[in-house]
Amino acid sequence: MRHLAYVSVLAGCLFAALWLEPVLKVGVLRRWRRLLLTVLPVMVVFVLWDLAAIAAGHWHFDASQMTGVVFPGGLPLDEVLFFLVVPVCAILGYEAVRKVLRKPDA
Fold first, then answer.
1. What distance in Å separates the CA atoms of residue 89 and residue 56, rounded to the nearest whole number?
2. Which of 8, 12, 17, 52 lies in disulfide reach of 92, CB 3.0 to 4.6 Å?
3. 18 is a domain residue
4. Per-residue pLDDT tens digits for 48-68
5. Which residues cross the membrane (predicted)?
6. Cα(73)–Cα(79) distance, integer angstroms
7. Residues 2, 64: Cα–Cα separation, whole Å
């Protein structure tokens, strides 16, 4: 089970944030194109950054806590999912706070 540690944390993050979509009706997932245009460029930058750090020997991953799926260059699937899940959760949280704090029209 330890090999699912990273993915389990990511699933927990999603579980903790996804309820904001239907309960507060923040509309993040409904505007999926906008979400992709926000998340994908950041994902690309950080994937490239991780690949460079792995190649230079500055960064590595604990294989015992990973799913075992590794892309060329040594980047695990779990890390790629991190670059997707964490920003989506952050955007959901941000939009939820914006919605709650939005002042009603006067």
1. 30
2. 17
3. yes
4. 999 999 999 999 899 899 999
5. 6-24, 36-60, 80-97
6. 13
7. 7
Is there a domain that residue 22 lies in? Answer: yes
Q: 99: which 2 tokens?
A: 């919605």
- Long-range (24+ apart) CB contacts under 8 A made by 96-101 are 96/20, 96/24, 96/26, 99/24, 99/25, 99/26, 100/24
The structure tokens listed for 51 are 């690949």
Confidence of residue 105 (pLDDT cuts 50, 70, 90): low
Q: Smallest Cα–Cα separation from 38: which of 81, 97, 83?
A: 83
Residue 92's pLDDT band (cuts 50, 70, 90):
very high
What is the mean predicted confidence (pLDDT) over 62-89? 94
What percent of the chain is helix, strand and coil (3-state, nearest 5)?
70, 5, 25
Q: Quote the DSSP letter at residue 26.
A: -
* Residue 30 to residue 21: CA distance in whole angstroms: 9
Number of domain units in the chain: 1
